[in-house]
């Protein structure tokens, strides 16, 4: 009888220890294990295309396709930069958040300057992002809100899409 009570006590103790711990991994239903940490975090190399908002087709002018880099940091911090002339744009700072298992959204803001260095307004870029199951690439699309120096939004918005791979 003592052995049975001892085994029941041991089982209860082990169950309490196991059930009280947060899971470090989760199953996704098809056997893939993934960590519960945000997989979007890290540095990404992106190919951005400015598009026609109505059709999604690339706009036919020089500079409509360009390279960019994004740093998705902890706690939703975002820093973005691209190959466009840094004399006409400020640093791009923003945030990101998870919206689903493999989906995120992000936004960043920058100040815009003319070629003489005069402030001409700001821009906010907002994208929805789908992370590949392996966590090594993503696709995103969204819009750019353009504001003048007094904060009045100029319409229409611009649109863009991007594909990105994790920088290693």
What does this structure look like?
With 168 residues, this protein is mainly beta. The chain has one domain (41-166): Lipocalin, CATH 2.40.128. It is 11% helix and 51% strand. It has one helix and ten strands, in the order αββββββββββ.
Secondary structure: elements and pairs:
Layout: H1 2-19, E1 25-27, E2 33-35, E3 42-51, E4 65-72, E5 77-82, E6 92-98, E7 103-113, E8 119-131, E9 137-147, E10 153-166
Antiparallel strand pairs: 1-2, 3-4, 3-10, 4-5, 5-6, 6-7, 7-8, 8-9, 9-10
Summarize the structure.
This protein has 168 residues and is mostly beta strands. The protein is 11% helix and 51% strand. The chain has one domain (41-166): Lipocalin.
* Oligomeric state: single chain
Please report the first level of CATH classification, the CATH class: Mainly Beta
The poorly predicted ranges are 6-32
How many β-strands, per DSSP?
10
Total number of domains: 1
Helix/strand-derived class? mainly beta
CATH topology, which one? Lipocalin
What coarse outline follows from CA principal-axis ratios? globular
> Quick one: biggest sheet?
8 strands, antiparallel, barrel
Widest sheet: strand ordering: 3-4-5-6-7-8-9-10
Summarize model confidence as the mean pLDDT: 84
Q: What's the order of the H and E elements?
A: HEEEEEEEEEE
How many angstroms does the end-to-end distance come to?
60 Å
Known CATH architecture: Beta Barrel
Number of helices: 1
Instruction: Give the C-alpha Rg.
Output: 23 Å
Assign a percent range to the helix content: 10-25%
């Amino acid at each position: 009888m003592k052995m049975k009570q001892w085994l029941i006590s041991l089982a209860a103790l082990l169950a309490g220890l196991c059930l009280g711990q947060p899971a470090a991994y989760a199953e996704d239903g098809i056997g893939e294990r993934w960590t519960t940490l945000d997989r979007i975090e890290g540095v990404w190399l992106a190919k951005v295309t400015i598009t026609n908002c109505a059709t999604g087709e690339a706009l036919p002018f020089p500079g409509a396709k360009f390279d960019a880099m994004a740093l998705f940091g902890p706690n939703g911090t975002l820093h973005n930069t691209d190959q466009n002339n840094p004399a006409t744009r400020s640093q791009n700072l923003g945030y990101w958040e998870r919206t689903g298992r493999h989906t995120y959204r992000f936004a960043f803001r920058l100040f815009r300057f003319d070629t003489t260095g005069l402030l001409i307004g700001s821009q906010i870029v907002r994208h929805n992002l789908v992370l590949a199951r392996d966590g090594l690439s993503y696709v995103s699309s969204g819009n750019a809100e353009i504001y003048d120096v007094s904060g009045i939004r100029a319409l229409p918005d611009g649109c863009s899409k991007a594909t990105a791979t994790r920088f290693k």
